[in-house]
Each structure stands twice: as C-alpha cells, then as structure tokens.
Amino acid sequence: MTDPTFIPCAGGLFTLPPEILASLTEASPKGLIYIRQDDETFTISVERIQDGRRRRLASEMKVAMFRTATQLAVLNLPEGIRIMAVEWRTGKGLRHTTSPYHYAG
User: Fold this and answer.
1) Which of 76, 68, 63 is nearest to 97 (CA)?
2) What is the pTM of this model?
3) For the stretch 5-24, what's the b/e string if a residue is b when 16 or more beta carbons lie within 10 angstroms of its beta carbon?
4) Phi first, then psi: what are they for 73, rounded to 5°?
5) What single string gives the DSSP state of each residue in 20-50?
6) Closest CA to 97 of 69, 77, 75
7) How far is CA 41 from CA 26, 36, 63, 70, 96, in A?
8) Exposed/middle/buried for 46, CB within 10 Å: 0-12, 13-18, 19+?
9) How are beta strands 53-56 and 5-8 bridged, if at all?
10) Is 42 exposed, middle or buried (0-12, 13-18, 19+ CB in 10 A)?
11) In this predicted model, what pLDDT tens digit does every residue of 45-74 receive, in sequence order?
C-alpha cells in the first residue's frame, strides 16, 4: 500500500504531482490516458478501463466532481491512479471525507 500524496485543488483544477506525471508519461509514450469518474473517486490509467474515456495526458486537470474540493488525495496503485477529495468547502466551512485508505481496498 502506498501512502497518499495530498495536493491542493481550486474549482476542480489540480496539478498532478511530478512523480505521478513522470510515471504516467513513461508508461504511455503517446501521452494517452484513460479516465473514469465514479461516485467518490477519479481514476487515471494508461490501460483501457471499463466505462472510461480516453484523453491526452496533461499536468493540469479540471474535473467537475472536484469543483468544491480544496484538497485531494492521490494514490498510485497497480491498477491506476486514484484521486479523491479529502477536504472541500461547504456553506459552513471545510468538511472532511473518509480517509483515503478507505478507497484503496
């Protein structure tokens, strides 16, 4: 199990950590990745994933499901990169979600 990397997010826009970006770039020489949004996680893979969409790899990504998130956890798992919100803004301030380890299983 790898430890999560925490990154800031504003309006759904975030920058992938350099080590994750380098790993994806090395694994996909053509720069194509597959993405999928589930209820609580956003998955990035260099291999086709069921119900996923193909897109070009970019260091900055904008994901609508994270539009209120202020902090994301990034897990580098064998089957792909999983990203989930761990902190987001509500009308009453900041709220925290379940631990990122909950999504790894």
Assistant:
1) 68
2) 0.84
3) bebebeeeebebbeebeeeb
4) -110, 135
5) HHHHHHHH-TT-EEEEEE-SS-EEEESS--T
6) 69
7) 23, 8, 11, 15, 15
8) buried
9) unpaired
10) buried
11) 999 999 999 999 999 999 999 998 999 999
CA distance 55 to 59: 12
Q: Which residue type does 74 have?
A: V
3-state helix, strand, coil in the chain (%, to 5): 15, 45, 35
* 78-91: pLDDT as tens digits: 888 999 998 888 77
Structure tokens at 12: 């759904």
Q: Which two tokens stand for residue 103?
A: 């999504």
Q: How far apart are CA 12 and CA 102, in angstroms?
A: 22
DSSP code, position 10: B
